[in-house]
Amino acid sequence: MSINLSLLPADEKNKVELDKQASFLVWKLREAIAGPEEIIEQRDKIVDEQEKAWFDQSIEKYKRVMGVA
């Protein structure tokens, strides 16, 4: 079953985008391309508290998946 992401409500689209950003940032951290400060900078740009919580959950999820301490 395929899902057309463009049909999602705006808040769901934003969750997908935040999850992608989290994945990319943790990958950069694992590859020593960026440091933890880049994750902090990105998190500080998020205004909505629920979105910050979602971003934090995604960061932790990808750290576990990628084996980043």
Number of domains: 1
Give the helix/strand class. mainly alpha
| Helix share bin | 55-70%
What is the rounded Rg? 13 Å
How many strands? 0
* Amino-to-carboxy terminus distance: 35 Å
Low-confidence region ranges: none
Largest sheet: none
Assign an overall shape: globular
Average pLDDT over all residues: 95
β content, as a range?
Answer: under 5%
**N-to-C order of helices and strands:** HHH
Number of helices: 3
Features:
single chain; 69 residues; mainly alpha; 3 helices; 70% helix; DNA binding; PolIII_theta_sf
What's the short story on this structure?
With 69 residues, the protein is mostly helical. Helix content is 70%, strand content 0%.
Give a structural overview.
The chain is mainly α. The chain has one domain. The protein has helices spanning 10-30, 36-44, 49-66. α1 (10-30) crosses α3 (49-66). The model has no long low-confidence stretch (mean pLDDT 95).
